[in-house]
Amino acid sequence: MASRAPGTSERYDAEELRAYARRTLERVGIDAELASPMADRLLDGDLLGHRSHGLWFLSTYLRRISDGHIRGSGEIEVVHASAASASWRAHRLPGAWVMDEATRLILKQITSEPVVTVTIADCSHIGCLQSFLLPFTDRGLLAILTATNPGVASVAAPGGSRPVITTNPIAMGIPTRSEPILVDQCTSVASNALFESYAERGERLPGQWLLDATGRPTDDPQVLRQDPPGTIQSLGQADFGYKGFGFGLMSEALSLALPGYGRRDNPDRHGQGVFLQVIDPGRFAGTDDYFDELDHLVGSIRADPGVGGEGVRLPGERALRSRAEQLADGIALHPDTPGRLRPWSDELGVPFPRPR
């Protein structure tokens, strides 16, 4: 799950930010066809409120491209293909573009298959998982998405002190007759990007979400940079972290073992494995039964007045509200974003957009 950092009071035009991201990506060597979906997904990060995976992350992409860790052009290697499944090797092509290609393939194949699954090995960072769910939920399709990086270890097993897996996000898009339910969360307390952003600002965390190298809980994100490093606690933390770690192992099995790209080869930290599966409810009990059941479930949740009478919120509700509001009123960026991108603007000759 990406972080929901506070935005600034300044607002930016969405299309100007999209154009800025696209131009900078092209200037460092990304083909225009590949740069466009990268810019779209970065913008989605901000629109959906996941600002550590929005334009804040663009400077990281630009550095990785410049250092040769993200390829600017090339083709996807097809390892396996059938009507209902495909396995690809992306060889460090931009993750957002590879995911767009997978989305197009699945939407084509799901017209004749009840379930379509694509696994991707060795693509670059794909961005905010929630962003990839909407093309499916908009069509009444269930989507399950997991992604992880086998070159990063930041989470220890319960009772351990050595990092063995990473934060391993999982996402699911659940269509309803109204707004979709959009689950997007890490199997740890929070994402690597969130802790990186706190460490860069020299700030403490809101809670003791980390363990130092001796296994003691701490709110200091700098422990992840020490030698030996600290670790991120799994969901459930000290008492129930074994549950979050179990989901993390599920993510590793789906997004690394199935694509055949994982930790045994000791890869660097710039590639990801991805599992994307889409289900057509109409091929099971039927679309009407599916939506009737979801209507009943959502209705029962909405009937709860909540503590203080404010009601309860479904996963994705805040993100969709953020998206609609920012498209209308302008995007509130992570407060560090303009400063992170200023050196790249100067180097590449692409001025950062002015606030509205």
UniProtKB/TrEMBL annotation:
Keywords: Oxidoreductase. Coiled coil: none annotated. The keyword Oxidoreductase applies. It comes from Prauserella cavernicola. It holds the Pfam family Ldh_2. This is Ldh family oxidoreductase. One of its GO terms (molecular function) is oxidoreductase activity. Belongs to the LDH2/MDH2 oxidoreductase family. The keyword Oxidoreductase applies.
